[in-house]
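Record pair follows.
FIRST:
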Amino acid sequence: MYNPSAAGGAVNTEYGSRLFIYEVEGLRQNAETDNMGYPIRRSGSVLLTVPYSRMNQELQRITRLGGRIVSIRPYDGSVSNGKASSAEPQTVQSAEATQPMTQAQEKPAKKKDDGIPVNLYRPNNPYIGTCLSNEELVGEGGIGTVRHLIFDISGGDLHYVEGQSIGIIPEGVDAKGKPHKIRLYSIASTRHGDYVDDKTVSLCVRQLEYKHPESGETVYGVCSTYLKDLKPGDPVKITGPVGKEMLLPEDPEANIIMMATGTGIAPFRAYLWRMFKDKERAANPGYQFKGLAWLIFGIPLTPNVLYKEELEELREKYPDNLRITYAISREQKNPEGGRMYIQHRVAEHADEIWQMVKQEKTHTYICGLKGMEDGIDEAMAGAAAKEGITWKDYQRSIKERWHVETY
C-alpha cells in the first residue's frame, strides 16, 4: 500500500538559518478545521520545519489540530549519511500525482533502544535490494493491477517489524531533470519475510491510474508503474524502515480489529501471517496468538480480494481466532440499496465492535482510503451513544489502541 502519511515533508532550505524545527505531539487532521490538505499523522511525534515568517501561523495551526509543541530549535542544516538516528529533513513527494506535503517527517529513533528499527537507510544512501518476484494479485475480471513484490535484502542490515513501511526510489528523473523522490509503502510481510529466512521484504502495490483533469488522458503513477514493471534480478533502491503507529501489541491474547480497503490489506497480511502461518508460529515461540483477529475488507469485486486463497485457508484452519467480513462494493448492496462499502459493514456490526473496543486488550487498525474514516466514526458514535458515551471523546482516550494510517 502506498503510504504518504509516514513520509517526510519538503524542506525549503532557501530560508537558510531562519528555519526552525518544531517537535510536535498529538497532531490530527480535521477536514473542517484544516483545509491545508496536509496528510498529517493522527498521533505520535513529528518534526515540522518552519520558516521564521510563519512561526505564529504554524503555532495557531498546531493548536487548532490538537497538537502540543515539545520543543523548538533552530535548523542547522546538518545531514547524516546512510544509517543514522538523528533528525534529517528530507524531501519526498506526498503522492504519485503531485500533491502538497506537510513539512512533517517521522520522529527518529531515540537513543534508548526500544527494539523498533527506524531509518536504517536514508534517501542519500539507500539500500540496494534485488527483485526476486513480481506477481499479479488481481484475478480475471477484476479492476486494475496489484502486484505482490518480494525483494532480497540479505546483503545489508535492513530489518523491520510488522506494521512499518519502506521507501522506494524509482529509477529515472522527473520533469525538472531531478532524481525521483521516495514513495513509502506499507510492508506486506512479517519481520522474517515471506520465506521466513530473514532475507526478504514484500510489498503490495496497486498501479496508480487516473485521468488528467485538463487533457483527459490516462496518467500512470511514476513509482507504482516502476514497481509493476520490475523483473526478477532488477536492483531497487530502498529506504527505511519507518513508522510506529501501526505496530502490533506484544500480547498474544489481544483482540485485533483490522479495517482495510484495497492495498490497505498490506500490513494486515503481515499481522495475519505472523499470527497464523505454521512456519511463522514455529519461528516465534514467544508469540502464539490466542486472541480474536477480525478483518473487515473492502474491495470492488471478488477478483479484487487480495490474497484470498491464503486468507480463506487461515480462516478455515483457525475458525475460533480469525473472522473475515468482506464489503464487495459492486456486488453487494447496503441496507439503502446502494453499494456496500466498508463503513456499511462496520455499521452493521457496530454494537459488537463497540463492545470489543471497550476491552483494554482490543486494538483497532484502519488502513487504506481516508474516505472510510467518517463512516466508521459515525457507526461507532451511534453504538457508543446507546450507552450515553460521546465517541470522539472516548476515541481520544484510547489513542494507544486506535491506530489509523489512511491516505
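SECOND:
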Amino acid sequence: MTQVLSGIFFHLGKRKESTKDYSKKWWAVILMLTVLVVLIVAALIAISLTARSGVGIHVVAGTFLLAMTSLLTASYIKRINLPNNQVTRHPVYLPVAIVSVFFAITSLVLGYIIYPTDPIGFGIVMIAGGIVLSVFFLLVYEGYPRLKIHGSPGILAISGLLMVTAIIYMTVIADWIVPYSPFHINVGGIREPPNPSFPLGTTSLGQDMLSRVIAGGATMLQVAAISVVVCFSIGVPIGLLSGYRGGLVDKTIGLVMDSLFAFPGLVLAIAIAAILGPGILNMAIAIAVVYIPSYFRVVRSQVFTVRELPYVEAAIVMGARDRDILFRYILPNVLPSSVVIMSINFADAILTAAGLTFVGLGLSVDIADWGWDLTLGFQVLIVGAWWISAFPGLMVILLALGFTLTGEGLNEILTPKLRE
C-alpha cells in the first residue's frame, strides 16, 4: 500500500498495472491535457487581444501566473508532508497565508501599474480569476489522479467540475476580455452571420454575440448559486428536525413539503416569479421554493435510518443533548447526499432560470443574459438567424451538463452500492 498526500486530496491505493502500461497512460493523459490547455490559452489570448478594456491579455496572463503559484504551493505542501514517504502533521497554514497575501499584494500592485483608472476593480478580478483558475489547475493536477481510481464515476465528476470551473473563470474575467460592451447596439450590422469580425455573429440590435455569450453567464450563475444556498439552508435543517422529532412535527412539515412537491416545478416557479416580479433575488427565491422539498425528502429519509444506529442510541441513553445528536452524529451522515443533491440542483436551477426568462418573468431586457438571448433569438429564428439562439443555448447546455456530470459522478462515488 502506498500513502499519497497531494494538496487537498488524500487516498490510499494500490497500483494494479505494470509500470510500463502506467507510463504510457500517464504520457497519453499529459499529452491530451497539454493540447487542451494550449487550445484554451490560444482562444483566451485571441479574445483578450481585442478586448475593449485594453488590458485583457494582462488579466489572462496575471491570473495564469497566480494559479501556477497556487499549484507550486500545493506541491510544496505535499513535499513537507511526505518526508521519506511518511505522512506527518507539519503545519501548512503559513504557506497558505503567504500565498494569500502574495495574491492580494500582487493583484493590487498590478492594478496600480497596468490599470490606474480602476486599480481596485482590476485587483479584485485578478484575485477572483486566480482563485478559480487555481481550482481548475488543482483539479487537473491533483484531482484527476485521485478521482480516476473510482473509474467512470470519477471521470464523470472531474469532467463536470472542469467544465463548470472553466465557465466560471470566463464569467469572472468577462468584463475585461469582451471585444465590445455586451449592452452597446449597432457595433456591427443587423443580424450578421458569424464572420471574422464577429465570430459568433450579431443580434437584431447589432450587438456582438461573442461579448454577450461571454458576459451572459454571470446572472445565470448568481441566480443558481443563491437559489441553491437557500434550498440547502432551509431544506436540510427542516429535514433533520422532521426526521428526528417525528410525530406531529413530521406530519405537519411533510404535508407542507408534499403540497409544494405536488406542483410541476416550472409552473410553481412561474407563479412565484409572477408574484414577486423580475430580479435576480426574486428569481432565486422562486427557484428555491421549488427545490426545497427535494432536500427535505432525502435528508428526512436518511435521518430515519441513522437515528436507529447503535452509536446514536448510545448517545441518547447517555443523556446527550438533541443538538449534539443532530449535529455531531446525524448531520455528518446525511451531508454527502445533500452535496450530491446540491450539485444536481445547480443544473435544474440553471434550466429553470432560463425558462423563467424565456417566458418573460426573469431579468430586465437590458441585462446580458443567456435566457434573454434565447428568447430574442427564437423570435427571429424563422428568418434564418440561428446563431442568436444557438450559442447562448449551447452555453446553457454546457453549464447544466457540467453540474449534472458532477452530481452523477459524486453520487456513484459516495454511494458505492449504485455500482454493484
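COMMENT: The CA atoms of residues 113 and 383 lie 48 Å apart.
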